[in-house]
Amino acid sequence: MSTQHSLLASYLLKLETALQQHELWSTNSPSKQQLASLQPFCLDTLTIEQWLQFVLIPRFSKLVASGAELPVIPADNGMAGMADIAFNQRNIRANEVVDLIRSIDFLLETPWP
Which three-class secondary structure state does DSSP give residue 112? Predict the structure, then answer.
């Protein structure tokens, strides 16, 4: 497993724990229709924490487990900014969650050798 994959796996575990600690972890899965949204972050069908739990974490975990090439996320398209806005709009104090997402953004900003 590459260093980048190992770091991402660590961040994903920490993100899951942080979501649970902030009581943002859901026991109910969204419907297939909700997950099929074509909007970025499934904004029209999911909350940001649902998107993290049911889309980002599972997809990135599969990439890590398979050793597949990880996506490159341009710095100006990071996920942390969206999460910060979404949490602030709902008066949710989840700085730890946003910081972990920011770490994932930074990790994926440039391709690794």
Answer: coil
